[in-house]
Amino acid sequence: AQSVTQPDIHITVSEGASLELRCNYSYGATPYLFWYVQSPGQGLQLLLKYFSGDTLVQGIKGFEAEFKRSQSSFNLRKPSVHWSDAAEYFCAVGFNTNAGKSTFGDGTTLTVKP
Amino acid sequence: GAVVSQHPSWVICKSGTSVKIECRSLDFQATTMFWYRQFPKQSLMLMATSNEGSKATYEQGVEKDKFLINHASLTLSTLTVTSAHPEDSSFYICSATVTGEHEQYFGPGTRLTVT
Q1: Nearest-CA distance from A80 to chain B in Å?
Q2: Of A67, A6, A14, A66, whose CA–CA distance to A38 is shortest?
Q3: Each residue of B13-33: pLDDT tens digit?
Q4: Which among A6, A83, A76, A3 is positioned nearest to A39, based on CA atoms?
Q5: Which residues contact A30 (CB under 8 A, 6 or more apart)?
Q6: Rg of the Cα trace of chain A?
Q7: What is d(CA A53, CA B84) in angstroms, rounded to the nearest whole number?
Q8: Residues B5, B108: contact at Cβ < 8 Å?
Q9: Residues A60-85: what's their mean pLDDT?
């Protein structure tokens, strides 16, 4: 069965520091990969997605992610974190056998220290 | 583009009553809509997949008689929580997609509190 793992439940970084959030998936074919951000009481906002092509994808708010097939990973990065980045981050994987349907990781809570 | 709305954004109801949540795609036709439930500090749990004009497909463990889903048009799906109980209190999120596409467009969510 397909699965998504976000190994870090909670990450704390200082404002201005770099950030990397990890995401690993288990799937037999090339998946469709997404990163979402959720602020408290809000819906999900798409940060970026990977379907094919260049494995380094740029997203909104200065985020980027790199698809590494050999490691079954799609880690999210940001070179300099802002206090407003504090939120919950979800990695999701979609499958070409069921268009539109995704499996979500458990999420990583990001806290930003001043 | 690709905006999805939900109504209401929050609702409080008494135990035993039913409550309906609407999910609308505002600027596109959504052939498929998904309903999720999210408990505090947890991930999204897919409840059901709804295709326009057909019965919803429920995930294992989700009571279809309790969570009634209707997808009567290409822009509207509704989730009705019947005979709600306090344990049904949660954050309900819908998303919509278009045939052949792999991206979901999420609504802002509905906070349901059952007293």
Answers
A1: 25
A2: A6
A3: 999 999 999 999 999 998 899
A4: A83
A5: A52, A69, A96
A6: 14
A7: 47
A8: yes
A9: 96
